[in-house]
Design brief:
Its EC number is 1.3.1.12. It comes from Luteimonas marina. It catalyses: prephenate + NAD(+) = 3-(4-hydroxyphenyl)pyruvate + CO2 + NADH. The chain is an alpha/beta fold. It folds into four domains: about 150 residues, 3-Layer(aba) Sandwich (Rossmann fold); about 90 residues; about 40 residues; about 80 residues, Alpha-Beta Plaits, CATH 3.30.70.260. It is about 55% helix and about 15% strand. The strands form two sheets. It has a seven-stranded mixed sheet, sandwiched between helices. Strands 9-10-8-11 form a four-stranded antiparallel sheet, sandwiched between helices. The termini are far apart. Bound molecules: nicotinamide-adenine-dinucleotide and prephenic acid. The site of nicotinamide-adenine-dinucleotide has 26 residues, from helix 1 and helix 3.
Length: about 375
């Protein structure tokens, strides 16, 4: 096995394909060949089959198994001793198809849209080792380079989990989005509701917005392509129907039943999960509150060196501006910045002077302030 294998990406012009090309080339220093019918300049499938030591499928869920079968046929045994990977959100079909080749096979599922960061740091990556032997050390090197939090599972277990982690979450939020749409005529759309928001509503609306902003084919297939999703939907619907029936009845017995059937889930969660989830929610709640603060500055620090943040904060100190919060975040373009919130009553002119000094001195680039 070569220490620097050539990577072939099927679907190289897609959202994940592009991220992965950049990752393998820039982060791992590997040569990448890619095929995508959406990119006339991409390599022919035969180039991938001839040159790629590692072949990775980053293609639409619905097409992947059949596409892998095409590659198995075209490869005609040349894949023996090579490694085939995929990043399909549903694993059983893709992994089964790859196993029909003679290659070593591992299914991967990054539990995130391609991050704006160069690695999967802080994100989960599900790893379905289906047939792995000589490529194991290289696979470990790949997972280390990805910097994700790896969880190992069979393709079957992965798909069962995804019926809950993805299909249920997406279904609930798409249903909420549909209900909001139905009520829009009466109460107004989201813009009319937002001023009344709780942190829970804001988060749920953000999740729905996220789902509705990304690739619709993926969300369709996560419902329709996972053999376990219909059963999950039956249970979700049964719970909601039961709750609706109890509320319609409205008597003491119905309330008692509600407490027993719905609020008792706290027992099933367990004390530790409740405490951790509750704390996570509170932290996110404070974050949302901080982000809603009116006096703020978002600053990108061009120099990633020790002490650069202190230099930035020192400017505010010298101008007598007091900080209330500070969070690191990324712009939609992927640029890391610090969003600094200032205490209520901060004088706009004093803040503007501090902001101008930061910009003019080159300590940081102010992306936004208010
Ligand atoms: N985008 C995400 O959030 C996300 C997250 C995790 C996993 N995934 C998985 O990654 C895979 C790709 O998703 P995406 O978001 O990049 O989709 P995408 O639609 O952006 O990209 C898919 C690419 O496959 C190409 N393609 C279609 N037919 C092909 C063929 N015959 N040969 C080669 N390429 C072909 C398309 O032209 C397209 O460029 C999917 O299986 C998806 O489940 C996506
Ligand atoms: O929006 C995100 O970043 C996601 O997490 C996308 C998401 C998800 O909603 O579960 C969608 C499809 C992929 O399979 C993985 C993750």
């Amino acid at each position: 096995m070569k220490p620097f294998p050539v990577i072939g990406i099927v679907g190289s012009a897609g959202t994940y394909g592009r991220w992965l090309c950049g990752f393998f080339e820039r982060r791992m220093g590997l040569r990448v060949v890619g095929h995508d019918p959406g990119d006339a300049g991409s390599d022919a499938p035969e180039v991938l089959l001839e040159q790629a030591d590692v072949l990775l499928f980053a293609t639409p869920i619905r097409l992947t198994a059949a596409l892998v079968d095409d590659y198995v046929r075209l490869s005609a045994g040349r894949e023996a001793g090579r490694l085939w990977l995929d990043v399909t959100s549903i694993k059983q079909g893709a992994v089964d198809a790859m196993l029909r080749s003679r290659a070593e096979v591992v299914g991967l599922h990054p539990m995130t849209a391609p991050p704006k960061a160069p690695t999967m740091k802080g994100r989960v990556v599900v790893v379905c080792e289906a047939r792995i032997d000589r490529w194991r050390p290289w696979l470990q090197g790949l997972l280390d380079a990805l910097e994700g939090e790896c969880v190992h599972a069979s393709a079957e277990r992965h798909d069962r989990m995804m019926a809950l982690v993805q299909a249920m979450v997406h279904a609930s939020h798409l249903a909420q989005a549909g209900v909001l749409e139905e009520y829009a005529g009466d109460v107004g759309g989201l813009a009319a509701i937002m001023p009344f928001r709780s942190a829970s509503f804001e988060l749920d609306a953000a999740i729905a917005a996220r789902i509705l902003s990304l690739n619709p084919e993926i969300y369709e297939e996560i419902q329709f392509g996972n053999t376990h999703s219909a059963d999950m939907l039956d249970r979700l619907l049964a719970r909601l129907s039961e709750l609706r029936d109890l509320v319609r009845r409205g008597d003491d017995a119905a309330r008692a039943r509600f407490r027993a059937r719905f609020l008792q889930s706290r027992e099933a969660f367990g004390a530790q999960a409740l405490a951790e989830g509750n704390y996570a929610y509170e932290r996110v709640g404070y974050l949302l509150a901080d982000l809603a603060g009116r006096r703020f500055a978002s600053v990108h620090l061009p120099e990633d060196r020790p002490g650069s943040l202190r230099t930035l904060l020192h400017v505010f100190e010298r101008h007598g501006v007091s900080l209330e919060s500070i969070h690191s975040s990324r712009t939609p373009g992927g640029e890391v910045h610090f969003r600094i919130g200032f205490v209520r009553g901060t004088d706009a002119a004093t803040l503007a002077a501090a902001v101008a000094e930061i910009d003019d001195s080159g300590i940081g680039r102010v992306l936004e302030s208010g």
